[in-house]
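new request in #modeling-help
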Amino acid sequence: MHLTLEFGGGLELLLENSTKVHKVEVPPQDGENMVTMKGLLSWVKANLIKERPEMFVKGDSVRPGVLALINDCDWELCGGLDAELEEKDVVVFISTLHGG
Amino acid sequence: MGAGGERTEAIMREIASLRAKRDELDSRIRFFEAQLRVGGASPPSTLPPSLSTKLDAMGVHAAAASGGLSPDMVRRYSRQLLLPEFGVQGQRRLSRSSVLVVGAGGLGSAVALYLAACGVGSLGIADGENIMHVEAYVGQPKVKSASAACRAINSSIKVFDHHLKLKSKNAVSIVRQYDIVVDATNSIASRYMLSDCCALLHKPLISGSTIGLKGQLTVYNHNGGPCYRCLFPNPAACQSSSDNGILGVVPGVIGCLQALEVIKVATRVGEPLSGRMLHFDALSSRFKTANKIHQKSSTCTVCGSNPNFTQDDFMMFDYDSFAQSTKSSNKPTPSLNPLPKNARVTCREYKRLLDSGRAHLLLDVRPVHHFQIASIANSVNIPLHELKEKLTRLRDALSEVADVSHGKHRPLYFISQRGDDSQVAVHILRENGFPYASDIVGGLESWAQEADPGFPVYW
């Protein structure tokens, strides 16, 4: 499945060359025929995250303070970990900032 | 300078302080005069009542003196009055609104200046720090410099300084006095504290934040939208801005956008950024708006359907501990794993070694861009995260030095900004067969204080 992944708010620093936008091909999880957010998170952790994975995921989910957006909509409104992704979806992960 | 000079200085200070008080009183008098004019008595009507009724029925209304603005206000705000969306009604609502800006740093000073210029009725600025804004105010509280700038740009509004750090103990009584609150603070603890306080008191919170070259903006507690806790029930483990640096323009951009959101909430014009979040990436000049962020959460402990968080709970809540609770501890913390005494030297001891001219190697483990700002002469930079991969080559280079200076003195020293990373580095070396590496206690921060007062302080 073709997806566009974007990382911001500092999360891009966990990826190779701090690249913010990734156009990727994500295979369905074993035994399923669709890609869910849960599957995407473990795929990202295994394939894109180069350092400090604990700054991105905690357990099955994203760590506190990370917003995940599917097509500009909060992933929790789309079903959270069970949200099913569709071809060409844009998934954005952004870390919250607190400086002023 | 003699006693006469000191006396002159004291008098000058007294004059400056009296002038400031007079300006404050003048501005309050002008404010109340303007209020009188806004709600003042109408002149006698020259329009026959029967005609007035007929015109009213047509939807055509005679000018109401009470709806007008003072000539001063019209002159000052003419550009925004000319906006059909904003107009006189917008200006009236704005001049009756009161806004509290919490934090007078990069964000807060931009927000406050624009709010003063556009004519909010009263503007409070709360900040506990003493740092420089403008050179003339070095050493004075930030709020003094920020409020002086606001009064200078618009003397017709009320400006209040709250020179204190807003905490759960003192926040309720201050926040209560205002209609709208601006979060321009710089810590996770203060962000939770302010959001909880605003949720308890039902005040809209215009939240801006920046780090490095990025910024975020959203509006909490407004029109049934979420609070900070609805979005982030648990505190994040994130970086602090003083370690990451900031380009002043970035909080300037976000601060201006915060002022805009305040104006929209105060005047009920437009569509405030509630339930949405704007992200700004300065490096690529991109704004991105998440159009549907988490809605108000029914299970939110502070603003949900069964909130069990009272004002008393709020005042007792330890926000500092709460914000620390999920701090990531992936880095080996030196305090848990102390180095032996013989692997540590103080700045003064190192200074003596340096002055003696003995051969040694000083390795600076800060990031490259820190090292480029300032460094100790002859020190060599290997950023901490590159240390492991460079160990073998370091060993080869050091074997030559060790041969020359065998004896009591350890030829290898590590320094970092505060003396934390240097301890981590020494641990790494000790684990890899370099038992003689030492760290310099307190790092460059202590170096600047104890050994070299001329060292450029950038932190």
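bot summary: Chain A touches chain B at residues 8-10, 20, 52, 54-55, 63-67, 69, 72-74, 76-77, 92, 94-100 (CB under 8 Å).
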